[in-house]
Amino acid sequence: MTPPSLFEWLGGEAPLRNTLRHFYARVVDDAVLGPVFAQMSPRHAEHVAHFIGEVLGGPTRYSAEHGGHAEMIRRHLGRALTNEQRTRWLQLLLESADACGLPDDPEFRSALVAYLEWGSRLAVINSRLDRPPEVTEEPMPRWGWGEVKGPYLK
Fold first, then answer.
1. Could you tell me the CA-to-CA distances from 60 to 12, 24, 26, 101 in Å, in that order?
2. DSSP 120-138
3. Is the pLDDT at 20 greater than 90, yes or no?
4. pLDDT score for 67
5. pTM above 0.90, yes or no
6. Burial of 133 by CB count in 10 Å (0-12 exposed, 13-18 middle, 19+ buried)?
7. What domains are defined for the chain?
8. Closest CA to 22 of 84, 83, 86, 99
9. pLDDT per residue over 44-84, tens digit each?
10. CA–CA separation, 27 vs 29, rounded Å?
């Protein structure tokens, strides 16, 4: 029997989208994150839900509609994100996961937090002004129950 994907375990698109809508409604007024998201598109939460959903084993909508992992990297270039912003982002997102009823079992939360830690650290690295990264067309990372799949995640 194949275990469900993390996307299936959390309940699919609707719970993830609701969590991200809750989260982005909060960041607008947050002292640390408000400036980062001041020019946020009204569809930002939906796009991020597509991205995270795909990474967690859901439909490949972000790749099909928005350009995949390389496009997400491009969206962070030159933003000069700080570790303080990264940790606040993670804190508020996990609080939103709790508020919106995402599963709180240790195995799921461990996998979710591992991805969010990895992805947010990658965003900070890619946002640096002193050393813009070379963006290559790599496939989306695929996060699972304790394993990661992707050519750059060896």
1. 13, 22, 27, 24
2. HHHHHHHH-SSSPPPP--P
3. yes
4. 84
5. no
6. middle
7. 6-146 (1.10.490.10)
8. 99
9. 999 999 999 999 999 999 888 888 877 888 778 778 889 99
10. 5
* Integer Cα distance of 141 and 124 in angstroms: 17
Residue that is written with structure tokens 């969206």 in the block: 75
CA proximity to 122, closest of 42, 55, 53, 65: 55
User: Would the pLDDT of 150 be above 80?
Assistant: no
CA dist., res. 60 & res. 42, Å (int): 21
DSSP letter at 60 equals -
Tens of pLDDT, residues 26-39: 999 999 999 999 98
DSSP labels for 62-124?
HHHHH-HHHHHHHHHTT----HHHHHHHHHHHHHHHHHTT----HHHHHHHHHHHHHHHHHHH
**What is the predicted pLDDT for the residue at 154?**
41
